[in-house]
Amino acid sequence: QVQLVESGGGLVQAGGSLRLSCAASRSIFSLNAMGWYRQAPGKQRELVAAFTAVGSTNYADSVKGRFTISRDNAKNTVYLQMNSLKPEDTAVYYCHAQISFTHYWGQGTQVTVSS
Question: What does the alpha-carbon distance between residue 109 and residue 89 come to, in Å, rounded to a whole number?
Fold first, then answer.
């Protein structure tokens, strides 16, 4: 099992930046996958950025070149640096981790980008 706690959301103007953090309750080194999803009102939850089990990264096309996922294994924390934010990035952002076939989610953090 793993508990995930997100922080760093908030209100920002278009073009601004935010950094989200996800602190895990255990070592993230051996997790199958860990990353960030988001869900906007009336839309399905979608992948934003994630590390795979082999250490590669996946990004949604809509955030490539603007968002960067990183990790600090010593702190059991994954980050999402979000630059050049757009109003369409407004959503609740969820941290996700997978251990074997079980998926774990954080409580979510709201990101609101004003135009």
Answer: 13
CA dist 30 → 53, 54, 59 (Å): 8, 10, 20
Distance CA 38, CA 49 (A): 10
DSSP 26: S
Neighbours of 32 (CB within 10 A): 15
Contact 4, 22 (CB under 8 A): yes
Query: Do residues 104 and 96 lie in contact, with contact meaning Cβ atoms separated by under 8 Å?
Result: yes
DSSP type of residue 88: G
Residue 110, classed as helix, strand or coil, is strand
Per-block mean pLDDT, blocks of 10 residues, the chain (115 long): 94 98 90 93 96 91 98 95 98 96 96 97
Within 10 A of 27 (CB to CB), how many other CB atoms are there?
11
